[in-house]
Backbone:
């Protein structure tokens, strides 16, 4: 028997599976960040989202600038290797956003606890310093066997996970390799997984290397074919990281006017990923290995 | 860049590299920590195991990575695990040393990478902990790397992102024996945390004790046996310059 197809367009996936007010885990630890999915929810004007993951990057900043986000839950928030999250800082200063600030390890444990179906996991962190008691309440727990005092790190179960991966079959078996970070934990902790991939392959291809399947079809709500969907991050074995764009974004995001112009020109004003990739110089797209993924129409 | 600043930058990288021992496992961050670990691996410590929080294990990046997930990390690693693998190893005491930088540090080695000013109404909102809190809390040895910028050395950090040896009340933190900050390195000197307090133990050529403490407004002890004007091997300095170019 053939499994039912979960292959849909990205606009349809976001419309059907990402309601306003959702808590959304964003996949991708520097690698395979689902920018296309975020740009689509920005285009659809999603509201009051809570975004979460351990180490965030400029995807969070863009979604905050676009007014889609009412809360962020993170261990790190910035532009990795470049600088700060300027739109986030403005939103925070203007009281437009709430936050829960943890550490990267505690964020991973929060997702892992949800994945395991337990209310918390003990850890030997967040007993000293100002993070506990800053924006979060971390309660102590005593080991019933040894008497050791630990922190109880509460489970975080997102409603939806947005994941970008190398490939999947139409049934939605998602194959992902390379740097994972907390992506697998976050995806498997979430109730609904919306995946985008570089390639759709036959189920036979999946069967030949099932160890590469990170999320099985029965845990996936939809899969959409979006080549180049992780730019300006990268996809192992498909294309490189556009380091220059992270530096450009630092300049763009410093001022609300240039940030708004970017949202219009690069996100709201383009129909899809192919049109977005057309906005970059062909030489750059070629050098990254993204040629052929940009739209051919002017 | 002024020649003196450049020399200090190289001193910081070289001095940190020399604190890493061959065969150790090292939890590495982005920036100077990566440069120092890469330098150690290319010189006296070829069997240093570099571990990045993204889950990459035994990496040897060809260029300094911009993010712990950057392609040069998986391209040079012997294993790609995940965050749970590497933070789990860290908590289980299976990683020897962590390298950290921050915006502010105090004499107890408390680090701030979260806010300048008040937490609720910050003058500057920064990136937060990432893995820094976890590393300084759990690593048996933590090396703190700071440029010699006196404004970064404060009586008490505005926000304790990563706990050093003692809290605001001056009481030692409750943590496993030996864990916590072990050294702080600047471009001008090396400090230990004798009795939990920042103590100058070595200065780097061309700086003496006065140079290593120049502009500091925070109390720093000086070890009576402090070595002055340590000179680093020229070849190591040259390689540090090449890596950071």
Residues:
């Amino acid at each position: 028997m053939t499994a039912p197809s979960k292959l849909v367009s990205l606009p349809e996936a976001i419309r059907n599976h990402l309601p306003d007010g959702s808590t959304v885990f964003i996949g991708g630890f520097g690698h395979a960040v689902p920018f296309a999915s975020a740009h689509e929810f920005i285009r659809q004007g999603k509201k009051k989202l809570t975004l979460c993951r351990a180490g965030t990057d400029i995807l969070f900043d863009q979604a905050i600038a676009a007014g889609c986000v009412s809360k962020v839950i993170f261990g790190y928030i910035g532009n990795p290797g470049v600088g700060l999250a300027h739109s986030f800082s403005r939103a925070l200063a203007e009281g437009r956003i709430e936050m829960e600030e943890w550490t990267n390890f505690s964020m991973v444990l929060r997702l892992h606890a949800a994945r395991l179906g337990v209310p918390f996991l003990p850890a030997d962190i967040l007993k000293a310093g100002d993070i506990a008691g800053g924006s979060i309440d971390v309660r102590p727990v005593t080991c019933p066997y040894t008497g050791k005092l630990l922190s109880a790190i509460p489970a975080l179960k997102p409603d939806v996970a947005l994941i970008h991966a190398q490939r999947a079959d139409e049934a939605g078996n998602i194959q992902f390799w390379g740097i994972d970070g907390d992506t697998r934990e976050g995806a498997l902790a979430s109730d609904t997984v919306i995946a985008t991939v570089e390639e759709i392959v036959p189920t036979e291809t999946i069967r030949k290397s099932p160890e590469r399947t990170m999320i099985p079809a029965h845990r996936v709500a939809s899969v959409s074919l979006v080549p180049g969907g992780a730019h300006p991050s990268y996809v192992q074995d498909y294309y490189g990281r556009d380091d220059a764009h992270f530096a450009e974004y630092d300049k763009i995001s410093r001022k609300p006017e240039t940030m708004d112009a970017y949202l219009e020109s690069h996100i709201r004003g383009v129909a899809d990923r192919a049109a977005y990739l057309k906005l970059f110089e062909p030489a750059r797209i070629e050098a990254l290995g993204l040629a052929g993924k940009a739209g051919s129409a002017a | 860049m002024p020649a003196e600043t450049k020399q200090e930058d190289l001193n910081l990288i070289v001095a940190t590299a020399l604190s890493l021992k061959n065969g150790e496992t090292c939890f590495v961050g982005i920036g100077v920590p990566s440069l120092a670990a890469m330098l150690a691996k290319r010189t006296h410590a070829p069997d240093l195991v570099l571990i990045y929080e993204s889950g990459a294990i035994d990496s040897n990046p060809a260029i300094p990575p911009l993010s712990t997930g950057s392609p040069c990390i998986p391209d040079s690693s012997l294993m790609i695990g995940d965050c749970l693998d590497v933070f789990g190893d860290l908590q289980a005491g299976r990683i020897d040393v962590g390298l950290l930088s921050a915006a502010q540090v105090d004499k107890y080695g408390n680090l701030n990478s979260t806010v300048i000013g008040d937490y609720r109404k910050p003058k500057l909102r920064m990136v937060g902990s990432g893995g820094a809190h976890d590393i300084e809390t759990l690593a048996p040895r933590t090396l703190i790397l700071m440029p010699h910028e006196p404004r970064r050395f404060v009586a008490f950090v505005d926000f304790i992102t990563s706990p050093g040896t003692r809290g605001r009340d001056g009481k030692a933190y409750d943590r496993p024996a030996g864990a916590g900050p072990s050294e702080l390195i600047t471009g001008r000197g090396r400090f230990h945390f004798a009795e939990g307090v920042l103590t100058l133990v070595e200065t780097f050529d061309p700086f003496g004790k006065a140079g290593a403490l120049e502009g500091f407004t925070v109390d720093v002890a000086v070890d009576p046996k402090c070595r002055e004007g340590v000179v680093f091997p020229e070849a190591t300095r040259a390689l540090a310059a090449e890596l950071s170019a």
Notes: DSSP finds six helices and 14 strands in chain B. Helices of chain B lie at 3-19, 32-42, 83-91, 132-138, 209-212, 234-244. Chain B touches chain A through 49 residues (CB under 8 Å).
